[in-house]
Design brief:
about 675 residues, alpha+beta, Immunoglobulin-like, C8orf32 fold, Jelly Rolls, 3 domains, eight-stranded mixed sheet, 37 strands, about 40% strand, disordered N terminus
Length: about 675
């Protein structure tokens, strides 16, 4: 009997420990005392509990609306975790309707002298910001944050756009201990469920009954002695079925970012509900885009897209003058692109639909991405060339894995020449034909034609972008160095240099360059071709740098690549489930001649290395040659493709491990006795 009682007590204890109370306001001392997340001790914060409930509500005057209710409780372990105490929601507005944010309740909890102290969020900590003509952002920052705090908040987002359910994230940059996500959709709406990411997400599917109640007002005129009108009300209702998806999940790992990642959100576990059709009783079925072809056709038929390409009269005289001496298609393409690029100024508005329209933009010489590039397409077509728009999703917008109109947020131009498509974007002053802004280099685009047909088109660069660095260096006996450097930036390297530095003063640029290279002192600086597109940028300067070598006794130790050495492997994860994205193929080549100080001899130089990645994806060549009082250094790293699948991660990680080890291996000089 005693043994049975003890067993029951143990079960009750286990139940009480695991049956955590996740009701709002029920934060425990155990949660506040928690020091680390045991399954990931590197986490600066974790979500203790998360509840997202998406449902539909019927309003007689306007129809169905979508309600999203959010409740989250977050543990802050250290100061780095304070970043997760700022919460934001984007609110869409369009066609006279807008989403709304309401019912916010939020508290910060701290343990002080054994007592739980809670601090309420103030109205002054809540902000609303206009992000664009289509989006506002509601944001709040939790008060009284300390290491060890627990924060919790709940709020509601109401949307009149019943055909759209925002993508629901199931994975954060910090771990999630427990979460419940429920999506309830009336039978009238048919959505396709798309899963994204690498985590298993299997919903429990149930149904429940719902009812819509109607109240109808009737007015009838009187008769006989009573000539006044009478008002009566009648009530009716419709029964319907709600389909419910419930996701109960525990111990969701953090999604960890790393260098050379396109957009980490592309690989975040999430659920996307894509509308297929809407069918109400006694009404025809309304279908929505469910294939890429229907997406492209819908976009092209918009008055702010396809119609804009049809407008030609506003530029005809300028185009005729421009093409007077242009005989070949190549000359026409180059002339038209340069004309639009020089004339038009980008107003920073990104979107696939025009802002003010091509005619108004041409007049103002300023416009959005769509204004400028649809105008470019129209001029190419008017010149008799085969030009078409290409829909693109920018890197920060993610990769559109599923057919969706919202997946594309950018448009560029394509023109056929000798059976090849030349891609162009005239919004940036430093782009060229087949050299797009790096923000638009996002795997593939979708070319669409007037007949509504479309096809995927790759927009990943294949041409190698080179950077060549030449140094002549004098090493002094005290470890200081001086010398000359010449550097050549080609293709995308030149594009990036121009965009980053052409609007910066030379003094500011040199200050930053000196600070980024360990206090380098630069003199006699010269740069060529900063604004001459199609030619490499060439910069040269004299330099001095203290303490670049270590002098220990009668020996000098130095890295052959000096301040250019790759001293850290960018790839650190044990496992990576998403691709490595270098943006463009690249080559970094260093040729360095080092003159050693008089009275010293070369005791040791690192050996040669020549290694390659599989399938000619990359190569590292490293060679040092000692001759008299000079050391000749060659280091060449080639990455021959822009994107590597996750299966090649370990090969890349080992490749860069060898580069770092070899480039940081030191030369040893000894004093001649």
């Amino acid at each position: 009997m005693i043994k049975k009682s003890c067993y029951v007590l143990i079960l009750l204890f286990i139940y009480n420990v695991n049956a955590q109370d996740y009701k709002f306001g029920k934060v425990s001392k155990e949660e506040l005392k928690e020091k680390i997340y045991t399954k990931d001790s590197s986490a600066s914060a974790s979500v203790l509990y998360r509840d997202v409930d998406v449902s539909y509500r019927y309003i007689q005057s306007s129809g169905f609306e979508v309600i999203k209710e959010v409740f989250e409780r977050v543990k802050i372990y250290n100061k780095e975790g304070f970043d997760y105490a700022t919460i934001s929601e984007k609110l869409y507005q369009g066609n006279g309707d807008s989403e709304s944010f309401s019912s916010l309740k939020a508290y910060t909890y701290n343990l002080e002298e054994g007592e739980i102290i809670k601090t309420k969020l103030k109205n002054s900590d809540i902000f609303k910001e206009e992000l664009s003509k289509y989006y506002d952002e509601e944001k709040f920052t939790m008060p009284n944050l300390k290491e060890g705090s627990v924060i919790e908040y709940q709020y509601k987002v109401t949307s009149p756009f019943s055909y759209s359910i925002d993508e629901i994230e199931m994975q954060y940059d910090i771990p999630i201990k427990k979460q419940k996500v429920k999506v309830s959709i009336p039978e009238y709406y048919s959505f396709k469920t798309n899963m994204k990411g690498y985590l298993s997400m299997i919903p429990k599917k149930t149904t429940k009954s719902g009812k819509i109640n109607f109240s109808t007002k009737n007015r009838s005129s009187g008769s006989g002695l009573r000539s006044g009108s009478q008002t009566t009300f009648s009530n009716s209702s419709i029964d319907y079925i709600t389909n419910i998806h419930t996701y109960d999940m525990q111990d969701m790992p953090a999604l960890k970012d790393e260098p050379y990642t396109n957009n980490i959100d592309n690989y975040r576990a999430s659920i996307n509900y894509e509308i297929q059709f809407v069918k109400f009783p006694n009404n025809p079925t309304k279908s929505y885009a469910t294939t890429w072809e229907s997406v492209a056709k819908t976009i092209y038929e918009s008055t702010n897209f396809g119609n804009q390409i049809g407008y030609r009269k506003y530029f005809k005289k300028d185009l005729e003058q421009l093409l007077l001496d242009k005989n070949t298609d190549e000359e026409k393409i180059t002339a038209i692109f340069s004309f639009v690029q020089d004339r038009m100024n980008f107003n920073s508005y990104i979107g696939k639909y025009t802002d003010e329209g091509v005619k108004e933009a041409y007049k103002k010489q300023s416009g959005s991405v769509a204004d400028i590039n649809l105008m470019l397409i129209a001029m190419l077509k008017e010149a008799g060339l085969k030009a078409n728009p290409v829909l693109v999703s920018t890197r920060d917008n993610g990769v559109p894995l599923f057919p969706t109109r919202e997946g594309y947020n950018y448009v560029i131009a394509s023109v056929e020449l000798n059976g090849q498509n030349i891609l162009m974007d005239a919004c940036n002053k430093y782009t060229e034909p087949n050299l797009l802004p790096t923000s638009a280099l996002n795997w593939s685009g979708r070319i669409i034609k007037e007949d509504g047909s479309s096809e995927s088109i790759p927009i990943v660069p294949e041409k190698l972008s080179k950077k060549e660095t030449f140094l002549n260096v004098n090493l002094l006996e005290n470890g200081d160095i001086s010398g000359k450097q010449r550097e050549r930036y080609m293709f995308y390297n030149a594009y990036l240099f121009r965009n980053k530095n052409n609007s910066v003063s030379e003094d500011d640029y040199l200050d930053k360059k000196e600070n980024n290279n360990g206090g380098l002192e630069i003199s006699n600086y010269n740069v060529k071709n900063k604004k001459v597109l199609g030619k490499p940028i060439v910069e040269s300067f004299d330099f001095e740098l203290e303490s670049q070598a270590d002098v220990i006794g009668d020996k000098i130790y130095m890295s052959p690549l000096l301040f250019h050495a790759e001293d850290e492997n960018p790839f650190k994860l044990e496992k990576r489930n998403y691709p490595v994205d270098f943006v463009f193929p690249r080559s970094n080549r260093y040729v360095i001649n080092i003159t050693i100080p008089e009275g010293y001899k070369i005791s040791y130089i690192p050996g040669t290395m020549n290694i390659a990645l599989p399938d000619k994806m990359g190569r590292f060549t490293y060679q040092l040659v000692a001759k008299n009082n000079q050391i000749h250094v060659l280091s060449d790293v080639k990455i021959n493709r822009a994107i590597f699948p996750a299966t090649d991660y370990f090969a890349l990680k080992e490749f860069y491990k060898n580069i770092v080890e070899k480039q940081t291996e030191q030369i040893v000089l000894s004093k001649i006795k």
